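Records of this kind hold a single protein each, on a pair of labelled lines. With that in mind, the following record should read easily:
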Amino acid sequence: MADVEVSVSSTKKRKAEEESSTVDGGLEEEHPPAKKMWLLPQEEVDWILAESNETVCTVYRELKRANPSLVPSPEEEKDESTMLLYTCARNAYEDDAKFAKFQAWVRDEYARKGFVEVDYDYFGERAEVSRLYDEAREEVMGHWDHPSDTDDDDEDWKLFIRAIRRTFV
């Protein structure tokens, strides 16, 4: 009779171990190991929180006022430059929406914790995008003189630069 009890006990143990390993395995798949988190510099948090919610240029705002869906008419689809304008306007509004969501997350984190943590990938992606932005800007703008983003005379230029920086940085 003692042999039966030992056998039942070991069977129960084995089942419990199998169930526990199945549960643990399932949790590992659902929750990958946490990434190392880094503090976002306070200067950057301040910049993110201070940014305007709408940075699209006047041309895109006027296009959206005239056509809120930003879907070109069949007649407009014939013109390649108009199609490009619609694509750029949609992208600008999508980027604004993404940034607004990110900004809300930063605001919430900062309000709850007093600081904001991001994973290390955030800094790597930002550096890569910044590098690509610099290369593209140099290719397109070259050595042309252009107003600085602090020039008060050209509001559209400032909005453009802010949107580019926010999108790519």
Notes: Residues 34-55+90-168 form one domain. Strands lie at 37-39, 117-119. The chain has six helices and two strands.
